Amino acid sequence: MLNVRVYSGLFVLFVAILIAVSLRGDAAVQSGKDKPAKQQANEGDSLVRLSAPAGTDADVESTASVFSSASLQNLRLQTDLNWFFGGKSQRGWELYVPLISSLIGTDADVRSGRFALALSRWQQANQLEPDGILDDATLYRIIETFQSRRIKERVPPPEDHLLTAPASDFYHPSRPEELRKVERQTYLAYKRMVRAAIEDPSLGLSVTADGDLALTEKYLKIISAYRSREYQAELRKKSPGSGRAGLAFNSPHFTGRALDIYVGGTPVSTAYFNRAIQVQMPAYRWLVKNAARFGFRPYFYEPWHWEYTPNVSHQSSALSHQ
């Protein structure tokens, strides 16, 4: 009789446990049903976000990584590529990186995949193989683009289109009056550009109380502007070895719209080491980024030489040598 009672008690306890477990499960299910849909979705999202794809920057970086091989080649070619310009053999394109970077729209390091990616997009837009490698074919097309934006008609302006700029605007204030002539619209654009540069504190330019460049300030001062054909011929006699890339027979300076502007180093020396200094100077870097806003375009080979071509077409044309 005792054993029957014990077994009966255990059976009742077992049934009670089963009922309790069943009720807890139902409560849990009901609790889940009672949660707002937004809360349930957010909880699900928290799991998805752990493995969500990267954002735009990461996508660009991933795409740029495809060009890792191209970036290695660019690192070598920027100092080793053999090419020709102005009748002379040239080596590498590292001097022109600021201009090239501005042209293809990137601030990325030459050694990076991002530079190669930007270059590939420019290549594609210019009907070149978009491999991101700055080889001789791409370099010549880039040079062609730069040269196409320069002054085409190198005709002296009418005398009344020239003005005599103040001596304080020149690198050498003692420069004779007849050598301080500038085409009028070019001079006005130059003054607007200089005022913008003065307002950039990163350049640290010395200014007068009137807001002009101080007499002692050399950066961005005019070295040379309008030259007559007769004066250019005299210069060639004094420097007969200058050649095509030096004192040109058909110079853009004849127009009064070409300015040699001081950006650092020896003012107008084409020596490699001098140009290597100039292209690193803040004044030159500023011009690369800003001069086009005021209508000025560079002669890529000479960091100091800028030409006023406000209505220039951005289309490429045949190579032109200064």
Q: For the report, how would you describe the main beta sheet?
A: 4 strands, antiparallel
Q: What count of structural domains?
A: 2
Written as H for each helix and E for each strand, in order along the chain, the element string is HHHHEEHHHEEHEHEHHEE
Largest beta sheet: what is the strand line-up?
5-6-8-7
CATH class of the largest domain: Alpha Beta
* Helical amount: 40-55%
Strand percentage, roughly? 5-15%
Compute the gyration radius: what is it? 35 Å
Measured between the Cα atoms of the first and last residue, the distance is 123 Å
Number of DSSP helical runs: 11
What is the SS-derived class? alpha+beta
CATH architecture of the largest domain: 2-Layer Sandwich
Q: What do we call the CATH topology of the largest domain?
A: Muramoyl-pentapeptide Carboxypeptidase, domain 2
Shape: globular
> Mean pLDDT, as a whole number?
82
Strand runs, count: 8
Catalogue the unreliable spans. 1-7, 10-15, 17-21, 23-55, 314-322
